[in-house]
Specification:
Helix content is 60%, strand content 0%. The chain is an all-alpha fold. The N and C termini lie far apart (64 Å).
Length: 55
């Protein structure tokens, strides 16, 4: 019975940590540029650095 209580406690702590990390990542906005980063490898390489590009 003690193992069941310990397992339940550990699983609740891990689930709480996962939810807290999810909320933190949403609040920081680190997911907003994921689409642009996913397409970055297929952009043509024209020899111009990212700092030199005109936007």
């Amino acid at each position: 019975m003690e193992v069941l209580v310990l397992t339940l406690f550990v699983s609740l702590v891990l689930a709480g940590a996962a939810i807290a990390f999810f909320v933190w990542s949403i609040r920081t906005g680190s997911h907003e540029h994921a689409d642009r980063l996913a397409l970055l490898p297929i952009e043509p390489d024209d020899g111009v650095d990212g700092a030199d590009r005109e936007q």
